Amino acid sequence: MDELLMMLEARLANLNCALRLAKKDQDFPEGSLRVSTSNKRVRYYWMNQKASDLGEYIKKDNHQFARELAQKSYNRKFIKMAESEILYLQSVITHLSKNNSDMSYDKLSLTRKNLVNPYILPDNIYAKNWQEESYKTSNYLPECKVYSTKRGEMVRSKSEAIIADILYELKIPYKYEKALVLKNGTIKFPDFTVLNKKTIQEVYIEHFGLLDDELYLSSNLLKLDEYRNNGIYLGKNLLFTYETEDSPLDIKGIRKMFRELL
Q: In the chain, where are the structural domains located?
């Protein structure tokens, strides 16, 4: 519900900003525009008090005038519809802020919450349950997991430990090397599977630590192709971090990316 309210408030802010621009944009010519299409040819006519019922033809060298008339018509319609939508959004936001189904559980005392199974899981409970679920992980060279994280698990590289610690510090639920079954039955083990608490969707994180190595790079590009073929897209539900000899892990940038996206 919090995410929905944030989306509605963002839409409201965007509309208010656009409405202010539209109300400032009022330097329009008199009259209106009529558009005629005949034999795949478009003609513009200026409808004004002096013109006939068909309007005054606008020549090709004066199409800027047609654009101004078209903008005028759009401006009037936009202002009317934006004002209507703003009033509606304001009423919806007010109502949902004070009265939504989630509150039937949120307002219970802790004692009663312990006795009740909510029909809609609050995001924090969903995230807690997701984090505590058991999962199949990679058994590939377990002896290579020699780096400890703040959460007490072992990972394969110092950079992965840093990434895990950033997720932990930001309170982003994550699972290390959780099995992912692709459409063709192939099993992949993304470095991290995280829960985006804003959208309650899983997002995968891959760390590319040897981009200087051509074979390593080629192999991972094929992995990205497999992800894309399975509806897993960079920037949507797949993020990646990287480093090379000349470009060390950007810890500050990664923390900022995780904070803003997750």
A: 2-100, 134-261
Report which secondary-structure segment, H or E, holds 241: strand 238-242
Rg (CA), the chain: 28
- How far apart, in whole angstroms, are the C-alpha atoms of residue 262 and residue 170? 9
Question: Rounded to two decimals, what is the model's pTM?
Answer: 0.72
| Residue 156 in tokens | 């394969």
CA 216 to chain centre: 30
pLDDT tens string 118-159: 998 888 889 999 999 999 999 999 999 999 999 999 999 999
User: For residue 79, what are the contacts with CB-CB under 8 A and spacing of at least 6?
Assistant: 19, 22, 23
Cα separation, 21 vs 55, whole angstroms: 30
CATH code of the region 134-261: 3.40.1350
**Amino acid identity, residue 94?**
T
The first and second tokens of residue 104, run together, are 């039937």
Cα separation, 250 vs 241, whole angstroms: 8
66/55 Cα distance (integer angstroms): 12
Amino acid of residue 230: N
Q: Which of 142, 242, 238 is nearest to 194 (CA)?
A: 238
